[in-house]
Amino acid sequence: MTWLVWRQYRGQAAIASVLLAAAAAVILADGFQIASRWHSILVACAGNTACLQQQAPLVNGVVSDLPYISLLVPAVVGMLWGAPLVAHELEARTSDFAWSQSITRMRWLTVKVGWLLLAAAACGGAIAALTTWWSGPINAMSASAFAPGQFDTQGIVPIGYAVFAMALGITAGTVARRTLPAIAVVLGGFIGLRLVISDFLRQHYMAAVTTYYSVGGSFTAPGQSWVLAQGAVGPAGVVVATGWGDLYPALPASCQTLLPTAGTGKSGSLSAVFSCMRAHGWRGFATYQPSSRYWPFQGIETGIYVLLAAALIGVTFVIVRGRDA
Amino acid sequence: MSAMSWVVWRQYRAQAAIAGALLAAFAVLMLVTGVQVASQWHAALIACSANHTCGNLADSLFLGSHAIGFLVIMTLGVPAVLGMLLGAPLLAYEFESGTSQYAWTQSVTRRLWLVAKSGWLLLAAAAVGGVVSGLVTWWSGPDNALQGDAFKPGRFDIMGIVPVGYAVFAVALGITAGALLRRTLPAIGITLAGFIVVRMVIYGWLRAHFAAPVTTYFSLAQGFTAAGSSWQLAAGYAGANGQPISLPQSVNGPVIGGSAAVPGLPVSSLPAQCQAAAGNGPLTPATYHAVLSCAQAHGIRGYLTYQPASRYWAFQGIETGIFVLLAAALLAVTFTVISRRDG
Questions:
Q1: What is d(CA A179, CA A90) in angstroms, rounded to the nearest whole number?
Q2: How far is the CA of A178 from the CAs of A70, A169, B90, in angstroms?
Q3: pTM to 2 decimals?
Q4: Which domain holds residue B143?
């Protein structure tokens, strides 16, 4: 059965390997340039944070879009390999033949699904490893490992995405019994779920940490942490995000009058506003996920996608078992 | 022809209904959140003009929500989806299921069949691309005004008329890939890969050269900012002979001049005479002035190379034209292949 899977997919495996090798060549060639630039910046700045912040971005142009292209890999795997797995057999009526052999239908499905999920995990892992290595200096320079588009392309989550997209394709094809609608379902479902989880769920994997500090002082969460909200909080618990536009109306009248106005050039009066705010019991606050939670978050997100994939595969087995050949 | 159009409508009415429903949902979402964004922008403008902080509004104001912003960026993928799901199966699926033998042995000629099918699908793709782009362009109005970067990749590419060109090209690419490969799945793969590669080559390397950029030289003391949403291609400093001054890869030490658009000129890159004027340690107002006038005496100026904001629609037109021409060339290949093929 494994031999059969290899015979059926060796062409596609060859194409996938060539594409992965080409991606690896581009990423490696570019990654070494980035690493050497980063090294020269580190030497020149010698631990001076202000110096690091005034450097030009490490990447720009088309190269900076490499991680966004790698976001597509799981969807492509699910559309082109997952969706046709059962749907194309049914469409071409080869299921009549495949499912009436000495090998049982369940075993046929187990071996095919197993190898394809493994291949999806390998593709996701290979592209994630390359992107993670390539992004190392960028993560370090902009302290942004949690940023969407960076968290999602590095570490182990791409493996979870790829396994899930493959499972979604297989299940959609089994339910729809036609390849093209299944492909559309993979695309819509994968993007929709990724959007919901990355924008609404991810920040709640663990209760965020909130730190208070004196107004006018500054606070930077240490390391590559994920700042969810930062601003000022008033005595009555009024929370205002950073930015004078929102802060101005919330301030007590006595502090509002101290705000600098254009033309007068009273630059020193900002500190007067800050001390007025302090006197009225205002504090600065930052709510964030500490950088130490990066790998737990990667693990939780991967776990969610792998569990969803397992549930989808379970549905597929139930449907295929119940269906007449 | 009208009979053929009827066939096309019968074959695609379910897909048209799905596409229509998705477009309607997207339109509702864009309209509802777009009105919110517009009022948020309006309120921020009133607040910032009350306390005179409009100059750095872009640093503190975030319009809309991350989720909607992400959805707007995702419309970059609409043309590719049209090409994969409408274009690629058009011929490939007929070949695969053998229905081409039936379709091409009717009283309607093979060419007329292809003209009607590809014509209606290209029109539908252009309409979908145009509607999505219209909604996104309207939704992004306040954000465009706030950020002033209409030429930026990811912004230029989802607004105006270029998405129409992309959609027509992607569908033409799908039809051609299907005609050549005769199988749907490989055609879908080629459509996706080809679309991404062509788009990257054009926005990454060609777009900047649609028209010769403008280079403005400016005095170190005054600085320079290009008006409106211009597209900055290069910036730096040049000596008296116009030769650019090579800057170190990383800067640590005093600089003179500089703005948001053009980083400051490191003192270490100046002639030795001017470096001597800087003395040791950080610059004081007096030494800053001495270094500045020394650099100016050596004829050192800043330069900015850019595409002016006024070229936005010309660039949109050129890029759309390129993709429509590529689509026409692909369709010509398809017609040649189909006319010569035995039914």
A1: 9
A2: 27, 11, 16
A3: 0.87
A4: 2-211+310-340
